[in-house]
């Protein structure tokens, strides 16, 4: 490795990703959920992402929130070039991207500069040197405004404790293998599997590692290289992270993972009373981590954000807005949680889904539904929290009556670009949803269909109203046109259609399956995307 990398894997790019916890509207809702003021995250004017990787998530946030300026810093020129290329092709004017180290940024920042409303850094804290960690704190101290929020995620104790020897094994093995980091990772995985098969006592003494090892074989090699081969690899106790950001005058707000703030849904029943009785917020989080064997934390910190009184909090919560991100017929009321799968009351959750299927709604409008007459706002909040946690509902930007309509054009240009990239064989896996200020995870099959829809004009036919009026005759030729385009794209790209993880080889079966999925996409998924401003 060359000196500029500081031991960080830089010979291959990081994997593509979008993380909803970095979305301003999600951060604001998470803060309100724990009774805190969302501060400047509610309507940020300037956002900084430290270590944006390939930049997909950064650009989705920028495209979906055009009223804010997004500043991105990454020290890998490959990452910066990729993100800058996408931004320029999509014509995103509210971004600035820079190749620099965190130390560079900290050195240049002025005392009292305070020009940032929100800082986000996803996962990077685990992988950088102590000097870079100190620089992150200096950046927050000098540049985050009073009232600003910071999101940071990292590998956590105690859940990663047993993995420490595994990471060191992968790292030491990599030193013996010539070539790129992904090849070193493949060699390390082969060694790990061999040691498991040969009965190494470490793996026998830590049976929880078995599913991790199996999962590692399915994960993207670029991600694994960054996760396991970095020279700097820190697994943090929450108390240490709280002390670290405390040096920048930042106090803990809560988890950006909504469910983790609700002990009844996040920790075993036997420890809830002990956690509930603890008044020290830092030690309370330590107890929660032990109780849940926490592996990964997504923390929110704030600089001088006050706790509102009950009246103020109710007003803040009532103003929060939400949008449905999945077709109403596909909304599930079964929710995975740390304490097991939860079954939501169909009448209650169905009423919320029905309301949001008509368009975005405020929390006050949701809480006013007849199904919440008995449970009130607390029942409504738990319902919305579970729907948000499941990804089926998205927190949306809060708008005042005098605010202009959200400009969806930057996001739509960006989405058209990603669709065009799909036809070139590059699957980015996400699209921007500007009316929710967020992004959507999109399977490769749906990206292909969406690209075909855009190229054939089929989106003009696929409205919920048309389906409701039974206009199947009008829809049929468009389904066929889009299907033909998808099949041609598959042939050009040398790809086969997949269904339930299996490749469809027979051409007639492939045609039939694709046509059915195209029709479902046009009549079910596309109307939801229209509501979210995707196109």
TrEMBL record:
Q: What class of enzyme is it?
A: transferase
Q: Which residues form the Methyltransferase regulatory domain?
A: 221-303
Q: Which UniProt keywords apply?
A: Methyltransferase, Transferase
EC number(s) given by UniProt: 2.1.1.-
The UniProt record lists the keyword Methyltransferase: yes
User: Which residue intervals define the domain Methyltransferase in the entry?
Assistant: 46-160
CDD domains, sorted? AdoMet_MTases
Please give the superkingdom of this protein's source. Bacteria
Whether RNA-binding counts among this entry's keywords is no
Which Gene Ontology BP terms does the record give? methylation
* Gene Ontology terms, MF aspect: methyltransferase activity
Q: What is this protein called?
A: Class I SAM-dependent methyltransferase
Q: Which organism is it from?
A: Alsobacter sp. KACC 23698
Q: Specify the taxonomic lineage.
A: Bacteria, Pseudomonadati, Pseudomonadota, Alphaproteobacteria, Hyphomicrobiales
């Amino acid at each position: 490795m060359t000196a500029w990398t500081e031991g960080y894997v830089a010979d291959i790019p990081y994997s593509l990703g979008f993380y909803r916890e970095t979305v301003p509207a999600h951060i604001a809702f998470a803060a309100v959920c724990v009774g805190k003021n969302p501060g400047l995250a509610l309507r940020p004017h300037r956002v900084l992402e430290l270590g944006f990787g390939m930049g997909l998530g950064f650009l989705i946030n920028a495209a979906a929130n055009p009223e804010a300026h997004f500043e991105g810093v990454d020290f890998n020129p490959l990452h910066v070039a990729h993100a800058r290329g996408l931004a320029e092709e999509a014509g995103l004017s509210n971004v600035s991207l820079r190749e620099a180290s965190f130390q560079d940024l900290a050195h240049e920042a002025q005392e009292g500069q305070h020009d940032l409303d929100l800082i986000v850094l996803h996962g990077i804290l685990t992988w950088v040197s102590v000097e870079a960690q100190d620089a992150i704190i200096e950046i927050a101290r000098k540049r985050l405004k009073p009232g600003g929020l910071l999101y940071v995620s990292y590998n956590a104790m105690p859940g990663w404790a047993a993995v420490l020897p595994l990471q060191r094994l992968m790292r030491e093995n990599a030193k013996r293998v010539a070539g790129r980091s992904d090849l070193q990772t493949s060699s390390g995985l082969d060694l790990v599997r061999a040691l498991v098969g040969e009965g190494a006592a470490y793996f026998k003494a830590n049976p929880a590692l078995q599913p991790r090892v199996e999962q590692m074989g399915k994960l993207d090699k670029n991600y694994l290289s960054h996760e396991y081969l970095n020279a700097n690899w820190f697994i943090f106790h929450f108390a240490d992270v709280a002390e670290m950001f405390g040096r920048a005058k930042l106090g803990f707000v809560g988890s950006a993972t909504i469910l983790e703030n609700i002990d009844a849904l996040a920790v075993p029943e036997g420890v809830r009373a002990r956690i509930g009785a603890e008044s020290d917020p830092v030690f309370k989080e330590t107890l929660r981590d032990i109780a849940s064997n926490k592996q990964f934390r997504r923390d929110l910190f704030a600089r001088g954000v006050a706790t509102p009184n009950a009246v103020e909090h109710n007003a803040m919560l009532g103003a929060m807005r939400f949008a449905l991100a999945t077709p109403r017929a596909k909304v599930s009321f079964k929710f995975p949680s740390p304490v097991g799968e939860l079954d939501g009351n169909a009448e209650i959750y169905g009423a919320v889904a029905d309301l949001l299927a008509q368009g975005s709604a405020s929390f006050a409008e949701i809480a006013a539904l007849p199904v919440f007459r008995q449970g009130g706002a607390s029942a409504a909040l738990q319902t919305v929290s579970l729907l948000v946690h499941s990804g089926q509902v998205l927190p949306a930007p809060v708008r005042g009556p005098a605010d202009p309509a959200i400009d969806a054009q930057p996001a739509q240009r960006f989405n058209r670009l990603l669709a065009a990239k799909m036809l070139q064989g590059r699957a980015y896996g996400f699209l921007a949803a500007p009316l929710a200020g967020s992004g959507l995870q999109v399977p490769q099959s749906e990206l292909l269909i969406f690209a075909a829809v855009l190229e054939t004009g089929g989106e003009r036919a696929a409205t919920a109203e048309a389906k409701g009026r039974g206009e199947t005759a009008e829809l049929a030729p468009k389904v066929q046109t889009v299907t033909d385009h998808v099949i041609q794209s598959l042939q050009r790209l040398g790809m086969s259609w997949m269904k339930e993880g299996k490749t469809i080889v027979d051409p007639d079966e492939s045609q039939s399956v694709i046509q059915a999925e195209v029709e479902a996409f046009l009549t079910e998924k596309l109307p939801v995307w229209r509501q979210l401003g995707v196109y």
